[in-house]
Amino acid sequence: MKNRSFLAIALGLAATLIAHGAQLGDPAKPLNLVKTVKGTPVDLAAGKGKQVYVVEFWATWCGPCRTSIPHLTELQKRFKDQGVTVVGISDETEDEVRPFVEKMGAKMDYPVALDDNRKTSQNYMTAYQQKGIPTAFVVDQQGRIAWVGHPMAGLDKALEQIVAGKYDLAAAQKEFAGRAAREVRMQELNKAFGKYMEVAAKPDAKGLAALGKSLVTLAEKDPQILNAIAWNVLTSPDIKTRDMAFVLQVAEAAVEASGGKEASILDTYARALFDNGKKSEAVLQQKKAIEVAPEAMKSKLEQALRKYEGK
User: Fold this and answer.
1) Banded model confidence at residue 173, pLDDT cuts 50, 70, 90
2) What CA–CA distances, in Å, run from 187 to 48, 181, 202, 260, 263?
3) Cβ distance 28 to 139 under 8 Å?
4) Is 220 helix (H, G, I), strand (E, B) or coil?
């Protein structure tokens, strides 16, 4: 009902883990390129002090890359007169890239180049532990890495601020470091959750209490994470040892962390109460869930309420 069948989905785990050694503000490494397939060759050193570069990594086989290409073209046109140059870099062969670029035509209207044995990718993608493409890096007028991310997730705003001289690099680095820390925690939590589920899948499982405590600690009072943990432990058919006291504790913590105003979290709490034999309390919480739920959710929540009321 709530798309909570696996914790990683609810957590929205990122595909990347940013390395602690690579930070915004670090000098941009040179672009090691074999050939420029379209446009004028890009030299970061030559543009230092006056030019801003968007260095984007992509591939012809990458669906999301194809979606972002027109957006990059729009950004190139929009910021061209403000000293911004976009360059798309692929580690594929010229025989793969050139026909694709020619077919795209004006939709891909910025320089496109070929990486030299992935040397550029190593200096950018690997250095910042960016696992997925498309990924863009902004090199500011001082030759520093100022921004890293998906080309369609904040790149335009970052460019606006950089060319206007209003970009707060320190604040960006703080957010970047925080993103890294969150992603580390999410990976640790997902690993811990997998261990919990592995142990709980055994009849008469031992050690669940300690594993559950670790999960709650890693969740750091995040209501969505707590809710995902509770729902999975409540409903997973793979579990043979279901710690109902733990489920109730986590579901209640999720309600408290959310302020008791999220329907799906209240619904999970009601289910935990019901499965713990607290039927009247389950009814009360399910009614609260219905009160705050969007119309699209109400019918299924009402169906659960009838079950709790014994109707």
Assistant:
1) confident
2) 37, 10, 24, 27, 27
3) yes
4) coil
Burial of residue 237 (number of CB atoms within 10 Å: 0-12, 13-18, 19+)? exposed
Look at residues 142, 167, 192 and tell me which one is the last residue of a structural domain.
167
Q: Are residues 152 and 276 in the same domain?
A: no
Contact 305, 290 (CB under 8 A): yes
User: Quick one: how far is CA 221 from the chain centroid?
Assistant: 19
For residue 182, being part of any structural domain is answered with no
Cα 309 from chain centre: 40
Residues 232 and 281 in one domain: yes
Q: What is the pLDDT of residues 212-262, one digit of tens each?
A: 999 999 888 889 899 999 999 999 999 999 999 999 999 999 999 999 999
Average pLDDT score, the chain: 89
Task: Find out whether 141 and 48 touch, Cβ atoms under 8 Å.
Answer: yes
Residue 175 makes CB contacts below 8 A (sequence gap 6+) with none
Question: How is residue 129 written in tokens?
Answer: 């532990």
| Nearest partner of 244 among 219, 279, 210, 209, judged by Cα | 209
CA end-to-end distance (rounded Å), the chain? 20
Burial of 95 (0-12, 13-18, 19+ CB in 10 A): exposed
Give the amino acid at 295: E
Beta strands in 116-238 (DSSP E): 135-139, 145-149
Whole-number Cα distances in Å, 201 to 180, 209, 243, 248? 32, 14, 11, 19
How many domains, in total, are found in the chain?
2
Residue 142 domain-assigned?
A: yes
Q: What is the pLDDT of residue 21?
A: 58
Give the pair of three-digit tokens for residue 183.
Answer: 């992603």
Domain enclosing residue 115, as ranges? 31-167
Gap between the Cα atoms of 141 and 51, Å rounded? 5
